[in-house]
Write a structure and sequence with these properties.
This protein is an alpha/beta fold and about 350 residues long. It has eleven helices and eight strands. The longest helix has 26 residues. The protein is globular and about 60 Å long.
Length: about 350
Amino acid sequence: MTARPVGLLGLNLGGPRTLSDVRPFLGRLFADREIIRFPGGRLGQQLLARMVVLARLGAVRRNYRSIGGGSPIYRLTLAQLDGVRRRLAARRGCTVKPFIAFRYTEPSSDDALRAMDAEGVEDVVVLTLYPHYSTATTGSSLRELDRALRRTGLAGRFRFRVIDRWHDHPAYLDLLAERVREGVAAWPAARRPDVALVFSAHSLPLSFIEQGDPYAAAIADTVGAIMSRLGRDAPTYSVLSYQSQTGPVRWLQPRTHRTLEELGHEGIRHVLVVPVSFVSDHIETLYEVDQLFAAAATHAGITTFRRTRSLNDDPAFIAVLTGLVEQALDAGSHEESLCASA
């Protein structure tokens, strides 16, 4: 067992904590060709990014104001990682120190590396909080971590064990299926067969998929595994759609709000939205699903619109994350195990 603390580095996109943080957040997001590739190369990217930010800034600020004035993703990510720390301390006597590396807000990868160095951390478990791997999300965060190692002069300072995807982890799938059962159970028993499940994942530009990105296939695998677990409890209708498309590029289809409109026009009156690819509440759930999609559903004639509870810092989800981290800690031979249980 190592005498030094083990670092637990959580990767996520991040979000503005206050309304004044919205503009720099959007600027970093849309200027990054690793997540959205606008036409015209790097120069076109910078120009179009500025135009998109200026065009959307007022509306995006209003959206964040409607969910409390900022994203809760920092607070929830910290709670998730701290929950893993506490479970590992109780289960294995581990001294684990959690750190966050957000892609487009603080704390950045540079911040996290310097903090780990100051704490004397040498071994680090890197945990992506994007269950489904994409080069635009986890891939981008890992590349940024590599760049930050060089920028900070800390290259070679740490030993990393990386968890870069877990969309097919059995405990994770079990938990999502249970969320769906719980959501459907909110309807009277006689109505449950009529509930349409709308699985909604964060969209991705089609250019990534055309170049071999595995994200869409992984999302489909997760949805299929959830439906398999539901078995006889599954409603008769389900569909996979995508949300959060922004910018003048081609995105994965169909769009969730269009799907809701079509369901309403087809006579569907009861809908349960199941956000997949999201592990915590943020603008995509609190505003886009709870407000924007709810309004679209009502307009389309859907009378009962609900969504499944987010995972956030639910103890059952903390147990899933802890299991993933324990697998990384125990990777390799017994002598290489970190925080080995007594």
